[in-house]
Design brief:
This protein has 191 residues and is an alpha+beta fold. It has helices at 11-27, 74-77, 93-97, 99-106, and strands at residues 34-37, 42-43, 52-53, 57-61, 72-73, 83-87, 112-116, 127-133, 136-139, 148-150, 155-160, 163-167, 174-175, 182-183.
């Protein structure tokens, strides 16, 4: 589902979304004021149930993560997503780069917005990042490893093949979506 419209996700899209949510939940597991969620509704206009977004993954600081929520209402939580991830496809690229981008920028004032194309079909470059400066999104430049640094998360974002990954800035190792493990970088010979 994407913002209330029934849409099947590709395997690659679902893997990226699931990885992002679980890896970040584990990364922030010791923070009592950081919520990591995704593929649910973020309502941003009180009294208007039609004004919502459904980010693939998002992070909100300053809220209790273990509270039971059917959806996220910015006016009740007194907070908005600090970081949003959308994993694009041919079907969602226009929406993610158009109306969703506008809503994240103008209404939610999301400080960091990232797009990744798991199939590398339509988004060029396939990993893109935007940061909010003076009320307007500014494009981030990929580094020499085709990665982006997220100040809010203190992590690098990148990919290996079709797999979206978060990387520890100190070790360079990818975060795992499982407790107590990290994903070691692939060796050149594929082992």
């Amino acid at each position: 589902m994407s913002d209330g419209k029934l849409r099947a996700e590709s395997v690659e899209h679902r893997q990226a979304m699931t990885y992002a949510i679980f890896a970040l939940q584990i990364h922030f597991r010791n923070h009592a004021d950081v919520l990591v969620s995704g593929n649910d509704f973020v309502h941003f206009v009180e009294g208007d149930r039609r004004r919502y977004l459904s980010p693939d993954c998002y992070v909100v600081s300053g809220v209790y993560p273990n509270k039971s929520r059917d959806n996220f209402k910015t006016w009740e939580e007194r907070a908005s997503p600090a970081v949003v991830f959308e994993f694009t496809s041919k079907e969602t690229k226009r929406e993610n780069s158009g109306s969703k981008r506008r809503d994240y920028e103008q209404f939610l004032k999301t400080p960091e917005y990232y797009l990744f194309d798991p199939k590398d079909e339509d988004l060029k470059p396939r990993l893109q990042g935007l940061v909010l400066e003076d009320g307007t999104f500014r494009d981030l430049a990929l580094d020499q490893n085709n990665r982006l640094y997220s100040p809010a998360l203190d992590l690098y974002l990148g990919y290996e093949g079709e797999q979206f990954r978060f990387y520890d800035p100190k070790t360079g190792i990818a975060l795992s979506p499982r407790k107590k493990s990290m994903i070691a970088p692939r060796e050149r010979n594929g082992r």
